[in-house]
Design brief:
This protein is an alpha/beta fold. The protein has two domains: 252 residues, ANL, N-terminal domain (Rossmann fold), CATH 3.40.50; 100 residues, ANL, C-terminal domain (GMP Synthetase, Chain A, domain 3, 2-Layer Sandwich), CATH 3.30.300.30. The protein is 24% helix and 31% strand. The protein has a 13-stranded mixed sheet with strand order 2-1-6-5-7-8-9-10-11-15-14-13-12. The protein has a four-stranded mixed sheet with strand order 18-19-20-21, covered by helices on one side. A two-stranded antiparallel ribbon has the order 3-4. The longest helix has 15 residues.
Amino acid sequence: MHFPHYSKIHNRFLLNGYFYDRNTLKEVAYDFIKEGDQYENFLGDFLLDWLDHSNSIYLESSLASTQPKKILFKKQSLVNSAISTGNFFGVSVGDTALHCLPANYIAGKMMLIRAMILGLEIDLISPSKNPFYKNQKTYDFVAMTPMQAFNSLSELGKVKKLIVGGAYVSLSLQESLIKAKVNAFETYGMMETLSHIAIRTMTDPVSEFKCLPDVKVQQDERKCLVINAPKLDVKHLITNDQVELLSSTRFRLIGRIDNVINSGGLKLHPEQIERKLSKNLSFHFFIDSISDSLLGEKVVLVVKDDPQIEFKKLHKQIKECTSLEACEIPKAIICVKDFIQTYSGKIKRKLAWIKNLNVY
């Protein structure tokens, strides 16, 4: 029987050290569903959808501001995405890769597609904060979330090329990667673009994102990014990410428009303030706002409740951050029991749901 290009499995593809063709990989998928852990259940379901005779596949939208919805994609578009990544990073047949991302997210799905299409030798492990725990192997290509990269800094010498995505990379993490001489790249993308469409090298803290081949970008009237990628079947995709547009293939990310804080008529991006503060603060935090009778909204620093935090000292550290504009300096510190985060490390902002805030 003739199978279309996207249904074929590269004859050099290895999963956990074993060769699989299309039929034996289906058996693996059934085993994942019947006997596997949750992450293997997701992988099994995805593999069966990928290996069926349809030329398209449903993927669930990752848009945070709306209810998740399923979008139909051509399977050839996923193949094109995999080939584009392989060409850009020079990842090819026989290279080793580590799959440590959950397969219910597009990044986890695409790592598997890349391995099957490009002929990679991929190891599949359960997603965790430190994927290199008890793992002494070296890899040519690895994709991680910022949280995973942060918790694996001492082990990343084992990785030749590392891509980090899913949430923004803090300045402190980037500087740690530079100091450790990790060949790391920050990615920009989403499910709607079938993983990343732009890459930023992390050898320079202020480097811009550069689009992959055959991807063009522009801005709408809100200065938000609009993406066109014909080979991914992406046409005029409007995002909520405000950018500094440098050309039709280069941009700098500013922050999400739906996170903007309007303080005294000034529009402030919490992501920008976080990047500046991350040089002075070594613990996890985020920037948000609370209502203010004078300013409308005032900037606040949100931290996890910790008896070791000395608030007078923390206020001093904030004021010593010389890169902050006066309007960006947090006017208060908020303590919460815990942050609500996605697996990739994106913090679910907005404090409106929290009652009896502890303000310092």
